[in-house]
Amino acid sequence: MIERLGAVAAVAVVCGALAGVVIGLVTRGVVDESFVRDFWTGPPAAGIFALIGAGLAYGAATVAARVSRRSAERQEWWDRAKWALSGVHLPEVDTIPTRVDDG
Hints:
This protein is mostly helical. About 75% of the residues lie in helices and about 0% in strands.
């Protein structure tokens, strides 16, 4: 859980830094309307969306692998339990000794 929070914090810091850089460039006049239009309609935007898609695919694959691993661990435990219990021989009901009162 702590590792996940660390990853979320790292993503938040990177996004914040990127937003700060963009805001700084816009307020200084380095980025104007034509640049923004060219950026969002050209290859840079495609690259950004490709990275976002790759991140989503990685997250989905990570979750699927975790679920699959847990399922395999549970199945292995159940297979071992069945194997161990198959070797247990319970006595027949007729041969179970009963307690006899002496008094």
